[in-house]
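thread: overnight batch results

M.L. [08:02]
morning all. the overnight job finished for the chain we discussed friday. pasting input first so we're all looking at the same thing
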Amino acid sequence: PHTIASYKQSMTCYINYLESQWGIERQRVSFDGFGRKQVKAYLVWMNEVQHLAAKTCNLRLTALKSFMEYSADEDITLVANYNEVCSVHGMKECKKTILYMSREAVAALLKTPKTDTKKGRRDRMMFILLYDTAARAQELVDIQLANLHINHVKAPFITLTGKGNKCRNVPLMEKTVAHIHHYLQEFHPHPDTAGDAPLFYSMRDGQPHALSTDSLNLLLGQYANRARSGCTEIPNHVHCHLIRKTRAMTLYQQGMPLTIIMNMLGHENLSTTSNFYAFATTEMIHEAMIKTNPNAVAEAPIWKSEEFKKLMFSLD
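M.L. [08:03]
and the structure it wrote out:
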């Protein structure tokens, strides 16, 4: 549904452009308006007039190409139009390094929910599972009891339903399974009779209701604000997707192949995974340089020293 809404918005923006800049009334828009000349001018207009980011412009261009691909499959006479639109190249984007949390920051965040309250125990279990599975926010709130496979199996796992209702199985760490067993004893004492019940819920009108993604991100942000007072490494804006990227980056740094990370994240193509994670971080380069010269004395990187940090933060 989110993808459909995004593509619908992109198509609406393009039709608005044809109406305002080309004088084509909405009811008179035809495939003649989906040519190379119009689409290329649209790309320039978005960037230079509306001052939209290159990434936004390219996303809207992708929506137009997808629409024309579908149209050409339905009507062979539109293949020429489709080829024209595909000949329009996207804008160059400045590739930014991926933002992820340090191990210390993740540990501080997971320790923040108070386990002396029922709500705190629920929230802690949510964050543990969110990190361990690298699940999307929607995937986490959609988990039902029937999706857990932790009894009488050698390799416990959980089934997540991702985009396009595509399911994937994600293995669970031993410690996570232990946490889940304790959680089920308190929140789902009779799991055999409620296989379709949401794993995480809040009580309204005496009935359990699955949490929304907005509620999940709100809780995560609130706990992050509390944890930041004791751990300055926690970013200012913590959300579910940041936890997902952090888990993926941690596995990548530990040597897990990108193909396995791709399956765990539920990406359709390996290129999607590699575009985000297949680059060497500064620490990875530093460690590799030490390995190439084992006789050298391993010194702590200068950017980790407290003196260097104080110097950097004191600059005007």
